[in-house]
Write a structure and sequence with these properties.
By secondary structure, the chain is an alpha+beta fold. It has 14 helices and 11 strands. The chain folds into 3 domains: 113 residues, Acyl-CoA dehydrogenase/oxidase, N-terminal domain (Butyryl-Coa Dehydrogenase, subunit A, domain 1, Orthogonal Bundle); 121 residues, Beta Barrel (Butyryl-CoA Dehydrogenase, subunit A, domain 2), CATH 2.40.110; 146 residues, Butyryl-CoA Dehydrogenase, subunit A, domain 3. The structure holds flavin-adenine dinucleotide (FAD). The site of flavin-adenine dinucleotide has 20 residues, from strand 3, strand 5 and helix 14.
């Protein structure tokens, strides 16, 4: 077991600096343009692939960090550059996390590298759970997966909504219901390989923030995938469903297992936005003069900055604790994963709002990045489990009571 330390080791520091340089020199200068264009920033993804940031090897190396922190450090830096572009680059890891959480070792080896492709032939992946009538309530998914035994194929039908890289990805990891009466215990994850007939992009959504990241509807119309595309394999699914039918406790559900693993990383992205806004506002407050003195010389502004720094650091500590616990295989007994994502998301919204206040009119217009950071931050209280759902998880964990 790796000992917890607040000091980053040489490897972590080196990679953090390398990613920071990319965020500062490549991502940040492009942020305004791609926010306005509201399109996938392919040239930036290509640059990330060329230097190795967008690659399976890099992501596997980050997840392999014995302390569990590297993926969080990388995500904080990328989102410090720009959260929309960072998600356009790392949205693929949501699909990869879905494969990791539910796949067999053979499936992981076969599919995860394909999610990224190569620098000359870049691929994207998506993780599709949410539906028009099933957002927070993942147990009520309507997308059906029916097994065609004669052909050893699964047939998927349904509509997924709000999917990052949805409909433009090469590989979609789709969570569907095999036995609807069992709720989430009757669900499984499926890989939909590139160019599978029947899968198409529906609406592309125009958004409030993270606009460089594509969010789309995914239509599944008689999508047939080979039996080997069921993550975890049929034997394991049959066992799980049999247990659930008998009313016994069945192992972790397809979607939930993925979210458990990804929450601290999502929290780290929110920390990156908060830090960007804090740093910008601090510099601005030292420069901007009103009534003959720098505005930071007023306690009203200085104290805001003190709180912004404190909350950002506190969020990072919660994120690192959860990431470390996850890597050591410790159970989140008090909902520590949820705490990290919840606190970091709400901190990012709060800190970016304070930053707008500190910049005054300059904070409210698009020539300055602060209003964009505020728009970007808001998604962190919504996706990967809303703030209310995180509070539900934490309150159930600490009370042992199934609070509805
Ligand atoms: C930009 C973006 C990207 C996304 N990317 C993906 C993706 O890649 N893959 C994917 O599968 N999904 C994705 N999502 C979907 C996202 O995870 C859902 O939007 C989220 O889970 C909330 O679901 P909902 O929007 O249906 O809201 P609802 O579940 O309808 O919730 C509406 C409100 O009611 C509250 N609420 C609901 N139930 C309770 C309760 N029991 N107690 C208290 N309050 C409650 C919620 O907290 C929220 O405030 C994305 C969404 C967005 C906007």
């Amino acid at each position: 077991m790796s000992q917890f330390s607040l000091e980053l080791n040489e490897d972590q520091l080196q990679i953090q600096k390398w990613v920071h340089d990319f965020a500062e020199n490549v991502i940040r200068p492009a942020a305004h343009e791609w926010d306005e264009r509201e399109e996938t920033p392919w040239p930036i993804i290509e640059e990330a692939a060329k230097i190795g940031i967008y690659s399976f090897d890099f992501v596997a190396n980050c997840f392999g960090d014995p302390a569990g922190l590297l993926m969080c450090l990388v995500n904080e830096e990328m989102s410090w550059g720009d959260a929309g572009i960072a998600l356009a680059i790392f949205g693929t890891t949501l699909g990869v996390a879905g494969i990791f959480a539910n796949g067999t070792p053979e499936q992981i080896v076969e599919w995860c590298p394909q999610c990224f492709g190569t620098p000359d032939d870049i691929k994207l992946a998506a993780f599709a759970v949410s539906e028009p009538d099933a957002g927070s309530d993942v147990s009520s998914l309507r997308t059906r997966a029916v097994y065609d035994e004669a052909k050893d194929e699964w047939v998927l039908n349904g509509t997924k909504i709000w999917i990052t890289n949805g409909g433009i990805a090469d590989i979609h990891v789709v969570v569907a219901s095999v036995e609807p009466a069992l709720g989430s215990r009757g669900q499984a994850s499926f890989i939909v390989p590139p160019n599978t007939p029947g899968l198409s992009l529906g609406q592309k959504f125009k958004k409030h923030g993270i606009r460089a990241s594509h969010t789309g509807e995914v239509i599944l119309d008689d999508v047939r995938v080979p039996g080997r595309c069921l993550l975890g394999g049929k034997e394991k699914l049959d066992e799980r469903i049999a247990k659930a039918r008998e009313g016994k406790r069945a192992s972790s559900q397809a979607a939930m297992a993925t979210f458990e693993a990804s929450r601290p990383v999502v929290g780290a992205q929110a920390v990156g936005i908060a830090r960007a806004a804090y740093e910008y506002a601090l510099e601005y407050a030292k420069e901007r003069k009103q009534f003959g003195r720098a505005i930071i010389e007023n306690q009203g502004i200085a104290f805001k900055l003190a709180d912004m720094k404190m909350r950002t650091d506190a969020a990072r500590l919660l994120v690192h604790r959860a990431a470390w616990m996850g890597r050591q295989g410790k159970r989140f007994e008090a909902g520590e994963g949820s705490m990290s994502k919840l606190y970091a998301g709400e901190t990012a919204v709060w800190v970016t709002e304070q930053a707008i206040q500190i910049l005054g009119g300059y904070g409210y217009v698009r020539e300055y990045p602060v209003e964009r950071w505020h728009r970007d931050a808001k998604i962190y209280t919504i996706f990967e489990g809303t703030s209310e759902i995180q509070r539900l998880i934490i309150s159930r964990a600490i009370s042992g009571i199934h609070i509805p």
